[in-house]
Structures
1.
Amino acid sequence: MNVGPLSVTRKGIVSSGPQSLSASRRALSKTLVASKAQYVFVRWQVKEGTPYVPSPLLYDGRLYVCKVNQEVISCYDAKTGKPHFVNQKMDEIKGVYASPTAAGGRVYFVGRNGVSYVLKPSDKYDVPAVNTLDDKFDCSPAFVGDEMYLKGKQNLYCIAASN
């Protein structure tokens, strides 16, 4: 079995692309006409640096993607495709299968080696924190209330602010 990235959608924009190493990431716009016909057109597309396993993240008007399964990320304006930052290396991460996630005004990228990058959702690459757990990760983080859950190869982690 082979896995691939899911499409994401928000406010009539769908980010979608076929699963292949040469895939392009497309932002599509859907318009309904007379409630019967649908017209779809490519609003913008990127042909390099798109994900293979991790799904993209559409958050706060920005589309975040990993390059293939690597620790290299790019961020685009979701409406226009204008790059905010492209091919930014996350030096401490080694490989990415987990999809990026967002909660509490932060964007999270988790590497297979247990290193996670916390980004401010911004037009600039801004990393206020890098964290490490002694485990291997392929699963995307899940959020419930103020808690983040991470399923490692060895353990299940719940991370929350201390009271």
2.
Amino acid sequence: MSIIRITKNAHKMLMEINKQYKKDYIDFGIKSGGCSGFQYILQPCNKPPNKLDEVIDMKEYKIKIDNDSLFKLINTEIDYTNDIMGNRFVFNNPNSDFQCGCGKSFS
């Protein structure tokens, strides 16, 4: 069982991002900000994980989740959608009480 879930659409897009940027990891975490209190981070990086960070090896790429974000991201599903509103990652987080309409922040 994995800490997070990644849909097929998100997996395809993360593989493309990894090919394009050629970084060691895709950093997934949260930071203070956004209109709801916390904002998701999903970005390529070369910064090695700290001792307590979680690394998920997806074969084609590795997702690094920093220890400070871990408990707020457990069981989060990362999806990628392409609809009339545009192309974007969507985060389905069962730990959030409220999610902003933009889908990029939560509380």
3.
Amino acid sequence: MRDFSIQFDVAAPPARVWEVMSDGERWAEWTPSVTSVEIYDKPLRVGSRALIRQPQIPPGKFKVTELEPGRSFTWATGIPGIIYAHARHSIESTAIGSRVRLALRFDGLLGGFMGKRQAKLINEYLVMEAAGLKRFSEEGGRDPGTPLEAWSAEAVRRLETSRP
């Protein structure tokens, strides 16, 4: 088993963060770690299926395994017993807005090995996703003339300077 996570504050109410976070098909607008997300069963609910494409990672067929509307969802992909990835996305209310936690767990026979092998990339992607989710939730969409990579790099810089 191998766990990865990032926690960060967002100066936006949980409802706004949930709106952005639960709309997987728009993730590619705010993080370069995701090329596309196709959600096959809408609205998002336990049992919903999605195909997620990310650079440097084979496409993953995910299924929502847990959902608490407005607060959290988990989706998972893999081969039971061999390797499984569980991605949890959660929000809690704070005095300034929201606290978000993005977590990824690998388990199964090869879970620890794959987690260790992909650790650098996974941590980079978690930072990109956290920074993009924070900025998009706080500011709204990026200017269409601004390349995603530049917008994301600025979001990452801001996230890193805002964390203790």
4.
Amino acid sequence: MGEFNLNLSTRPFPAYRVANLALLLFFVVISGLTVWQVYSFQHYSSLAKNIRDKEKLAREEKGSLTNTLNGLGARLDRPVTKEKLAEIDFLNNLIVRKHFSWTTVFANLEGVIPDNVHLTTVAPEIFKDKVSLHLEIVCRSISDESEFIRRLQASPVFQDVVVKREERKGTAGSGDVGVDLTVSYFPEKSAPPEAVSPPAVQTPARVSK
């Protein structure tokens, strides 16, 4: 019989070695995924707990503010409080009316009204600390009306121009235009009048004897 040399010391069972390495790598990957999932679960659980705590605190603050507002509303709804507020509004209106200056009104209007626009009516309306003017004007044309409104809006003294009525008095597209409008008036934004210095008084020269 011929000799049969079988040496198992160099590469014993190579297929099993590859399988073992693959299983080891698989277990390492699974272990890494497991650790990552545990960390993610703890991290997001902590975030969710913080969100729940903040939501609970917000609800408690909302309830406290609601109770405070209800208490203030109950105090303001008392007849005595309503009378005091009405008295304060009345006194404020008196103060505003007392300091209302027709001279200042016409001076401010004179500074913005065009030549072809004629002012026929000025009626102030004072509500608390707000003043609005009802103006009735007669314009030579629509362009004159537009120019007047543009000047009002460009002035810091007048704001919120609202045209209530616009009526042409002539026929066949000609004639004057009657316009009713309201505008908010802020006299405190008027430029202060320039101070006029008194003329210098010359001292007569003394005549020496």
